[in-house]
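Progress note, sequence design subtask.
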């Protein structure tokens, strides 16, 4: 099945009728593949990415991958994305898996989290001087909090800096892509409104436009094709958030594919062994092409 941009798709996944979705602990209990190189994009300890390179000469299309974890320092980081990064590498797609400062790290939250992701995304220009990467075929993708950051980084904004590197498409996997809506009606799985306030600097920023330039929903149109993918069993980022964002993005003129994957929870979307991943990888390839 090849989804068509601009259409909402409800995908039924055979063999996904297990009783309980997996947790991140279930995922991390498995043996993980390893990246080919860890490379700094800045001077601070958490300003690095892990590069996954396919075999062969290249040049390779590239996914800039951004992990989730509620933007919080006490949850896992890049290792969450190792499994899908390894699967993409095996399929001929390079991956630049970013780490960044989070809430609880010195300088994390506003503005450090955004500045790190911006610098990491822009660093692909430097990577391409050494590694065979095709910078004409780059997609930003992220999971949960990383889905927010992947879409955020896909449009020029003040925190993206001057001359930002922008992708040809963006993928949100259970992304928290409307910060205001999630703060107001989202579950408390990520710490409730206090986490969103720490991310946006709500306690110290003097502005009437708190989410402008920070929340993809407040930045529409983004100007790039997007895939907004949710699991219908997701208790952390319920699929209604993806559906509402996709409707707003389409109304603003962005080409958007929305997938609500039946039988999938939050972490099935980053599990290459789950049926959901086949559809997700198809969306990534479609945007890269």
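Output:
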């Amino acid at each position: 099945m090849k989804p068509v941009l601009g259409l909402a798709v409800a995908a039924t996944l055979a063999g996904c009728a297990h009783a309980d979705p997996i947790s991140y602990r279930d995922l991390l209990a498995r043996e993980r593949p390893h990246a080919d190189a860890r490379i700094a994009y800045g001077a601070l300890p958490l300003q690095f990415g892990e590069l996954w390179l396919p075999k062969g000469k290249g040049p390779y299309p590239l996914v800039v991958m951004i992990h989730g974890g509620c933007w919080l320092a006490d949850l896992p980081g890049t290792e969450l994305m190792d499994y899908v990064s390894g699967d993409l590498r095996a399929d001929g797609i390079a991956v630049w898996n970013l780490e960044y400062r989070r809430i609880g790290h010195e300088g994390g939250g506003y503005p450090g989290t955004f500045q790190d992701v911006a610098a990491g995304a822009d660093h692909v220009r430097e990577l391409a001087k050494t590694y065979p990467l095709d910078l004409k075929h780059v997609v930003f993708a992220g999971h949960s909090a990383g889905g927010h950051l992947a879409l955020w980084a896909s449009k020029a904004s003040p925190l993206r800096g001057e001359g930002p590197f922008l992708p040809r498409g963006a993928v949100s996997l259970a992304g928290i892509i409307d910060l205001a809506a999630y703060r107001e009606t989202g579950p408390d799985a990520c710490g409730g409104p206090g986490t969103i306030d720490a991310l946006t600097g709500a306690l110290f920023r003097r502005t009437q436009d708190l989410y402008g330039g920070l929340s993809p929903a407040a930045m529409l149109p983004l100007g790039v094709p997007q895939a907004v993918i949710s699991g219908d069993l997701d208790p952390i980022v319920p699929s209604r958030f993806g559906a509402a964002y996709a409707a707003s993005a389409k109304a603003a003129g962005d080409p958007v594919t929305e997938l609500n994957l039946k039988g999938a929870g939050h972490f099935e979307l980053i599990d290459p062994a789950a049926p959901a991943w086949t559809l997700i990888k198809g969306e990534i390839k479609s945007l890269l092409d």
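The mean pLDDT is 94. Work on this subtask will continue into the next period as scheduled.
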